[in-house]
Amino acid sequence: MKLVLEDGTTLVGDGFGANAAVVGEVVFNTGMSGYVETLTDPSYRGQILVTTYPLMGSYGVPAPRAKGSIARPYESDRIQVQGLIVQTYVSAYSHHAATRSLGAWLTSEGIPAITGIDTRTLTRKLREVGTMKGWILPAEMDVERAKRSAQAIEMRDEVFRSVAPKSPVRHAGGELEILLIDVGAKDNIVRSLVERGASVTRAPWHENLAQLAQKADGIMIGNGPGDPKDLASLIEQVRGLLQSFTRPIFGICLGNQILALAAGGDTYKLPYGHRGVNQPVQDLLTRRCYVTSQNHGYAVRDGSLPADWEPWFININDGTNEGIRSRTRPFFSVQFHPEASPGPEDAGFLFDDFLRLVGAMKKRS
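Now predict its structure.
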């Protein structure tokens, strides 16, 4: 198998997934473990993933979960990446919960993967040049033929149709009612809310959100793939909620960008994004720092925020925005993942703060 980048760079290795040709943005992730969670994260939909940690597959993959379940460690019902690139694939896995190898799982879902690639050199190239389009294809396949036949995903259509549920789904957990706007939300967002005593109605972003919000004590805007500006109708719906909904609204990752755009701010594409479990951020209010899990290719432009909004967190590595909050209303969001999975749980307190505020405002109403 080989990886061909849009600038003509060709890297050849051995295949250990499906023998298929695919195309997608080539991005890298710096996590040392957690590949089951990462590969099923809807934010990776349509992308070819490069892992910077050299060994992948050593602990195998657990049994598939029951249909409709949100059990760990899966973050959705399928592998979301277009393909996987690793330096060293370990087929002889060892873990008490494992029932199959990483390669067998990838093959079963039609996802190609390559081992034997110098991922350190590839990552440095992506950092210097920025995210590039790439093709994974069988070694004998002609590149021009591959460009015509490789399976591609139109991200706009993908966001619209496949990463969100087809209709609202309720997960019972407690007295507080949270509306989760799903544009490809990770299952651990639902688990994090339910485990803290809230019930969650997980609704596709194209539902009538104003109507669903009438029964909600709080709203959460989840993560997802692609350019937030492709979701103009969702931005318009959230803008309406900012005017009519008086209880807390909390956004995560793509939700941070959607909230900013709805408030009147702007977003832009990062050169190579933030993807990993070791991203340091600082709370501009308390000056405390946290290590966070992240997976995004776009960011909010700080200077574009209206006067009644302010930056909340910043990324210590590059100074980019990592969260915003309203100065006057209970609306706020973060660019990182407080639910992690995989990654550190340093920012999990944000769920506690959100639900505490939701509960307090419900009691006052």
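The mean pLDDT is 94.
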